[in-house]
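Section 5.1 Outputs to date
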Amino acid sequence: KEALGKYDTGLFDEAEKIFGYLSQKNPDNPEVINDYGVCLLMRGRTNEAILRFAKVLDLDIAYKEAVINIRESSKVLFKKDWQDILILKPDIENINERLYLFKENIA
């Protein structure tokens, strides 16, 4: 709650620190990791944010907020949709393997 309060009042630096700590303590919690990514995005750290959103999708490929966030972030970073990037490797059918390649391209 404290992290969300900081985020809601525009204190992204402080919210980022709290969400960073929470994501280390809860590495399998998609909500915390997604919120951490949003804080990074708001601070202009798009690459790092996309990696967090991709981590969420590794945990839960259907996590809607992360899908939206990674799509919008990749449009800013790459000037194209993340789905377009994944389509560049059509020979890989497994979405998690494609997502891995996507993450490797931005790291």
